[in-house]
Design goal:
Blueprint lengths: L7 E4 L21 H9 L8 H12 L7 H9 L10 H4 L3 E5 L5 E5 L3 H7 L5 E4 L6
Parallel strand pairs: 1-4
Antiparallel strand pairs: 1-2, 2-3
Helix pairs in contact: 1-2
């Protein structure tokens, strides 16, 4: 099963309250999914695929020990997973996600020229982050 996007740009959700790319800060002891994903992606352009981001986020968010990685991976991908269109980064914090031809992702702030370039790029599949409200 392959969950990765290729040559795709995920725009921010239509109902996002953000007007720029915000750094998630939950101010809680345990990091939120948005904080974890931001830390994985910020400054690590095209290092991770969607599958890797989803799984690493799961491991960190649930505090799963490294020695359980392989069995946890099988269990995690053995059931249906939400894609990055549901990420708080695009829904709440104002970040677009560009996936290159090899399926690796880069974080792009909605207030950047690069965001506008990707949003209008020919040959790139354009989709949106899911709305927060129906």
């Amino acid at each position: 099963m392959n969950l990765n996007y290729y040559n795709t740009f995920i725009l921010v959700a239509e109902d996002t309250r953000a007007d720029h790319g915000e750094i998630p800060n939950g101010k809680r002891q345990n990091k939120t999914v948005g904080e974890i994903q931001f830390e994985l992606l910020n400054g690590h352009d095209y290092k991770y695929t969607q599958e890797e981001v989803l799984f690493e986020t799961h491991m960190l968010h649930k505090n799963i020990p490294e020695e359980a990685r392989e069995s946890e991976r099988a269990a995690f991908f053995g059931k249906s997973q939400a894609c990055m269109r549901t990420s708080p980064l695009g829904k709440r914090y104002g970040w677009g996600l560009h996936f290159n031809q090899d399926g690796y992702v880069k974080l792009v702030a909605m207030d950047s020229p690069e965001y506008r370039n990707f949003a209008n790029q020919e040959g790139l599949t354009i989709t949106r982050a899911m709305k927060s409200k129906r």
